[in-house]
Write a structure and sequence with these properties.
307 residues; single chain; D-Maltodextrin-Binding Protein, domain 2; ten-stranded mixed β-sheet; two-stranded antiparallel sheet; 12 helices; 2 domains
């Protein structure tokens, strides 16, 4: 089956068809006029048909990493579907999804995703990729975070030092993970040291850079902006920093909306989408790892190591 024809290309085909018709016949007969009328009836609906549109809500970390700019054009070329993306924190992305203003969501907050699944909002759910969080901060490292035994020790050292800490404070997946780490560490940063930005990852990193603050960030966004920041990665490689991403479609969709949502879901989770994700690199490093074949992927607490 030939690939779907883009609407603008359909228009081009229609115009070429009429031009060829004129070249073949120098004189218009009644028969030719009837044929042209029939051609116009069949062709013009295709010429004027608007592109299919699919609304997706996702996180600022996915957008800031640059991944969507790499993978979405390939999907749109392959399907003719125009994907319109809203990038916000995971909490807001899931709220937009649940409200019906998006038919697909791509997020990284397993606890919030589980709540959505439990409420019956999702029709399909799948883990598609993962990377990790890191703690970045001023290269001088006044809290001596570098060399911490684990993530919780790093958080305790930040709190004890009363060094500034930049928090997204926006109910995003990153903010949820930060709150979880504070809880597990049984400490909180000093109120005067906490800088809540209420913004996405890129903006929060810039604030941390300007203030000389520590910050929890996904690795991909940090690598994307690293050359513009006065920050260094000071703690990494802990199981508490695992950052998983899932795609889901909304229950109750019908007709073309369900079909388009399923096509994006299958494409990202399939071989072509996964190959593009695996090949996307920042500073020579893979920005994301694709979900391992054979590992459980259909529930929010699934892990890439299969447990």
């Amino acid at each position: 089956m030939p690939p779907p024809v883009q609407p603008e290309r359909q228009l081009r085909y229609c115009v070429l068809g009429m031009t060829e018709g004129r070249l073949k016949r120098r004189a218009w007969s009644a028969r030719c006029g009837s044929a042209f009328a029939l051609f116009a009836v069949l062709c013009l609906p295709a010429c004027s048909r608007p592109p299919a549109v699919l609304h997706m809500s996702t996180t600022t970390s996915v957008e800031n990493s640059g991944l969507l700019a790499v993978i979405m054009p390939s999907f749109e070329r392959a399907t003719g579907i125009d994907v319109q993306v809203v990038a916000v924190g995971s909490g807001r992305a899931l709220a937009i999804f649940e409200s019906g203003d998006a038919d697909v969501a791509l997020t990284h907050d397993p606890d919030a995703e589980q709540a959505i699944v439990d409420r019956g909002v999702t029709a399909r759910y799948r883990k598609i990729m993962f990377n990790d969080f890191v703690i970045a901060g001023p290269p001088a490292d006044p809290a001596h975070v570098a060399g911490s035994a684990d993530a919780l020790t790093a958080m305790r050292r930040i709190a004890a030092s009363k060094a500034p800490f930049a928090s997204r404070g926006d109910s995003s997946g990153t903010h949820a993970r930060e709150q979880r780490l504070w809880k597990l560490a049984v400490v909180r940063p000093d109120a005067k040291a906490l800088v809540e930005t209420g913004s996405g990852m890129a903006a929060t990193l810039r604030v941390a850079s300007e203030r000389g603050a520590y910050v929890l960030t996904d690795r991909a966004t940090f690598l994307q902006l690293q050359s513009t920041l006065r920050l260094a990665i000071l703690d990494e490689d802990d199981t508490q920093y695992l950052n998983t991403y899932a795609i889901m479609t909304r229950a109750g969709l019908n007709g073309s909306r369900r079909e388009n949502a399923d096509r994006l879901f299958d494409w990202i989770a399939g071989s072509e989408g996964q190959a593009l994700i695996a090949g996307y690199r920042l500073k020579g490093q893979p920005a994301f790892s694709v979900w391992p074949a054979g590992a459980p992927a259909d529930h929010p607490d699934a892990l890439p190591n299969g447990r």
